[in-house]
Specification:
With about 200 residues, the protein is α/β, with parallel strands linked by helices. About 25% of the residues lie in helices and about 25% in strands. The radius of gyration is 16 Å and the shape is globular. About 35% of the residues are buried. Bound molecules: S-adenosylmethionine (SAM). S-adenosylmethionine binds near residues 18, 40, 55, 56 and 119.
Length: about 200
Amino acid sequence: MSDYQKVDYDSYTNWHELGKETIPQIQKLITGNKEIWEPTAITPSFTGDSALDFGCGLGRNAPVLFKEFTRVIGYDLPVMIKKLKTLPKIYDLVSHDLPAVLSRENITHIHECVVWQHLTWSSNIIQNVIDLLTKTPSITTVYSVWNSAVNHQKDFKEYFLNSGWKLVETDQLTTSQLSSLAGPNIAHTWYLFIKN
Ligand SMILES: C[S@@+](CC[C@H](N)C(=O)[O-])C[C@H]1O[C@@H](n2cnc3c(N)ncnc32)[C@H](O)[C@@H]1O
């Protein structure tokens, strides 16, 4: 198993069942046992478009995304979406059907926070997402990982490049807007890809 397939804080792998837990328990697992529950997301200023919060959990990062995008959609596994639907509305739309969302919505930004690093590369999930973006001329994406999983980001970029996309811009996001408790160990990188 390579370094990025297992990150230090993450011994939890049963994501398909997470939504069945109580809200405090879900929050505990999502934050890696931190006591604080607040957004870790930061976005560069891409305005006026629709954003997909990929692996949105309980919607911790939705308030940040709504500052930049007019429409924000939460996507997660079926049990988590079921749980989200029992809570006060956070997103414009929540769904566990990614092909349907990407075919019906004009998604131009995918935000992910500590989701893809949990997936083993052999699962093809990221490749499937990229394949579903065929009609999208340009996509911005923020890929946020726990620091120990930075190698994961390199492979992520390659997936896009090998699938006919061109990397136009990339940068590390500053964590200065984050509280020191919320996410000092989370590395945010954003990318702008366009179709070749
Ligand atoms: C560490 S939590 C992060 C949740 C949220 N992004 C946040 O920062 O609060 C990981 C999330 O990824 C979701 N997840 C795991 N595998 C997934 C998959 N294959 N597709 C979509 N979501 C997935 C889990 O259900 C969980 O909500």
